Amino acid sequence: MLRVEAITHMQALDVARLQDGQRIEVAGYYAGNTLGGGHFTWFAHEQREEDGGTCFRAHDQASGRFLRDLDGPLTPGMFGALGDGSDQYTALKQLADTASAQQRDVVFPAGDYASSGTGLRFTGIRVTGAGPTRTTVRYTRDTRGSLVEINDGATLSGMTLDGNVSDDPAHWSTSNHDAFTGALPLDLIGHDVTVHDVVCRRSPLACLRAGARNFVLRDVVAEHARGNYGDGFFIVDAHDGLVERCQARDFTRIGFVSDTYGNSPEYILSERIDFIDCLAENGHHASIDYGDDEYNAGFWAENSDNVRFINCRSRNTTHYGFVATTGRVPTLGFGHFTLRGCIAETTGDGYVLSDLRSIPVRHTVDDCLARDVARGFCIEMGLAASRFTGQRLTTHLRGRRRSGNTLSLTGDGHIDIRHLDETWQTFHPRRHESIRASYASVVAADGFKGDLHLAHFQSRHGETDEPAAVGFKLIGQSHLRDFTLSGTHAQLFHVPAERISLHDCEIPSGWVKAFNALDVDACRLGDGVPRFDIFDTTQHHRYRHCRFDFTPGGGHLYLHNSDKRNSRHVVHFEQCRFKKDLARHGSMITLDAAPGVFMADESNYLTFHNCTFENTGSATDTPAIQTLQRPPQASLTGHGNRKNAAIGALTAFELDDGLMADG
């Protein structure tokens, strides 16, 4: 066996004196360095292309090749890349091309592998480093491109990829968002690709882009993304992906994105993507896209279907924690999103969940928390077919902004939530109690026209941790098809709906407009403010097993028939209890009608069954029930300090002359 010091020495051998099959031992790729050495065999008739690492020709010889004896993976040193910080693009490119062509795995020892070029593509092989803190592949120029690409069947692990983004400007502005230079550190393409234990950093675009099918990202960190598209992870037109235990840090737009390109066909979108145990933190500034602001967020799924966020966390972002919406045509016609065990904290809106561009959506949200936020869950659905189902939702609201709330509703759709728990960290009760304030727990300032079903909603003030009423204010163009509320202490500042059902609630004050039906069961009502308003135009208006205690606040139940097209107003009270100091605070119930129905042919009717009226003050002629309509003036007069025996067993009151006051 011949022995030489370097590759160039092997190439300088007089091959005329070498036997076909002659073996040569090379001490190192370069003289004086043992890295990249190995055993070679001379094949006199071989004519394959040189590759800079496994195949060399002799100087000035067209025929014959020195072929490296291989019994394991390739290394950068075999191609002359020493990992000493000097530019090694040519060697690295030859390594990637040769390893992919020969389907040989690659091992990067510890080192700093600088590259002045992009497009290092590995296909169908394993590429392994010594660990993210020991092996770095680093871009050194300023031209856009993808530094490393992994393609069909490839696996990458154990290294840091650095895109060499330019420094932040002294001042951010709309003109310098796209001024950053450098390369995208890692691009996933093709199918069946895996990345784990990798750091991707310093990119003028996303730190990692995945446009693959059947991909896995595990224990990957993306940090310091800059520019108009400065995302941590950008998943685009991808299918069947798992993103697990990954982190996005210090990004200008979004930490984790599932989306499609703007020019993709309508039926192309990202589908079946799972984000599990992922963290997005320290998002800042937001970017400029299409001439307008594009908000900063931790997680954003758009033009996607069947995306799941499981035990994920977003913190310290300027605008949103989680956004989930769809605008392309999903496989089954609906976009599906699941959020379970997620936390959004230190941001503006914790969760923004919507449909987009005429594609209905199904959101399932379970055991999620919005902490240190202005608004907790913003549901923006324009389509009646869209649906939001949630349970065990929690908010810790900053309470500093006048528009703070746990639920913000816009559009249409069906919302069904069980077990909500909110805490106001900083709270101004007088502002909250004002009917004109938008500082409420549930708000639809721009209008909501769908179905809203809530149960077991609890509210408390952070300073005292005392229970408080949940505030509802649905204004703008709000007109719900159906509203149900159960197991809740609430103030209904403004709730208009075709059908309203209240069960097992404590409602000290309210302004309710029921156009079709109102059903109130086992509730305590009217303790808090001077008037509890019911605007009603229906013949299906019933209270069962309710308690009206107007003594503390001196209020009364105000029944207002506001629709002259349906002048008949029928209210049924079954097994209800009424208490009030009549002499001091006036009547318990007022039945009113709009001017257009004062002279209607059909009168209004109130029916009582097994109800109790108790005057808690001195004897008075003030009626327990009064009407402001014509004709006639009806009343149920209270005569004693306690329950009057004559009316204690009253079963019906239908404008009976025997129960009316004189005149």
Structural overview:
This protein is mainly β. Among the domains are: 2-71, no CATH class; 505-663. Helix content is 5%, strand content 50%. It contains 5 helices and 54 strands. It has a 47-stranded mixed β-sheet that branches. Strands 1-2-3-5-4 form a 5-stranded mixed β-sheet. It has a two-stranded antiparallel ribbon with strand order 24-25. Mean pLDDT is 87; it is low at 434-438, 596-600, 631-635 and 637-663.
Key descriptive features of the protein:
663 residues; mainly beta; 5% helix; rod-shaped
Helices, by number, come to 5
Helix content: under 10%
Sheet with the most strands, sense and barrel status: 47 strands, mixed
The first-to-last residue Cα distance is: 129 Å
Overall mean pLDDT:
87
Helix/strand-derived category reads mainly beta
Strand content: over 45%
* Rg, nearest Å: 36 Å
Low-confidence spans = 434-438, 596-600, 631-635, 637-663
Question: Would you count the extended β strands for me?
Answer: 54
Q: What would the principal axes of the Cα set say about the shape?
A: rod-shaped
Q: How is this structure best summarized?
A:
The chain is mainly beta. Among the domains are: 2-71, no CATH class; 505-663. The protein is built from five helices and 54 strands.
How is the secondary structure organized here?
Blueprint: E1 2-4, H1 7-11, E2 23-26, E3 38-43, E4 55-56, E5 65-68, E6 84-87, H2 89-102, E7 106-107, E8 111-115, E9 120-123, E10 126-128, E11 135-139, E12 146-151, E13 155-162, E14 184-188, E15 191-203, E16 208-210, E17 213-225, E18 233-236, E19 239-244, E20 247-251, E21 254-259, E22 270-276, E23 279-283, E24 287-289, E25 292-294, E26 297-301, E27 304-310, E28 313-315, E29 320-324, E30 335-340, E31 343-354, E32 361-381, E33 387-397, E34 405-411, E35 414-424, H3 429-433, E36 442-444, E37 451-461, E38 467-468, E39 470-474, E40 480-486, E41 489-503, E42 506-521, E43 524-525, E44 531-536, E45 540-544, E46 547-549, E47 556-561, E48 570-574, E49 577-580, H4 582-585, E50 589-593, E51 605-609, E52 612-615, E53 623-627, E54 635-637, H5 645-648
Parallel strand pairs: 1-2, 6-8, 7-10, 8-11, 9-12, 10-13, 11-13, 12-14, 13-15, 14-16, 15-17, 16-18, 17-19, 17-20, 18-21, 19-22, 20-23, 21-26, 22-27, 23-28, 26-29, 27-30, 28-31, 29-31, 30-32, 31-32, 32-33, 32-34, 33-35, 34-36, 35-37, 36-39, 37-40, 39-41, 40-41, 41-42, 42-43, 42-44, 42-45, 43-46, ...
Antiparallel strand pairs: 2-3, 3-5, 4-5, 24-25, 37-38, 53-54
